Amino acid sequence: MSTVPVYRWRLAPDGLATRRQLRALGLRPGGQDVAAQVERPRRRREPLVAYLYRVEQAKPVRPMTPAKWAALAKANAARRICPECRRDAGYVIPLTLGMCTPCAFPEEQHAA
Predict the structure, then answer these.
(1) 5 sits in which H/E element
(2) What's the pLDDT score for residue 16?
(3) Confidence band (pLDDT; 50, 70, 90) for 106?
(4) Sign of dihedral through CA atoms 31, 34, 40, 43?
(5) Which stretches within the chain are classed as H helix?
(6) Is the separation of the CB atoms in 61 and 22 below 8 Å?
(7) Would you call 21 exposed, middle or buried from its count of C-beta atoms within 10 A (0-12, 13-18, 19+)?
(8) By percentage, how much of the chain surpasses pLDDT 70?
(9) Residue 2's pLDDT is what?
């Protein structure tokens, strides 16, 4: 196993980018190995680490097909359905509640 170069925050050379930076350019890593990593120091905790990829080896992002758009729309719609009352909440149900706010806090409806 080979080691990758480690750079300090904001000191990585040109030609390397994180996944988010590649995505902003319309690119993806495309199966290439990690070229380097950048570390951002933090007080009293482990440093934040981001992996860097070579921009010249990156490939274009695959376009969304109609089937992928449909699957994404179906998944987002499912996140809006309350498992308790089975109604569309009109917003994405928070994972912390697990249900729409009227079902999670029924006493607050009657107090108003």
Answers:
(1) none
(2) 96
(3) confident
(4) positive
(5) 19-24, 66-78, 101-104, 107-111
(6) no
(7) middle
(8) 94
(9) 65
The residue with tokens 């050379």 is 13
CB half-sphere exposure, 83, CA atoms < 13 A: 7
- Give the count of alpha carbons within 13 A of 47, CB side only: 12
55, amino acid identity = V
Residue 41 has pLDDT above 60, yes or no: yes
Residue 15 CA to residue 7 CA, distance in Å, equals 14
pLDDT at site 75: 95
Which residue(s) pair with 7 in the sheet? 38
Q: Please state whether beta strands 36-42 and 6-8 pair in parallel, antiparallel, or not at all (unpaired).
A: parallel
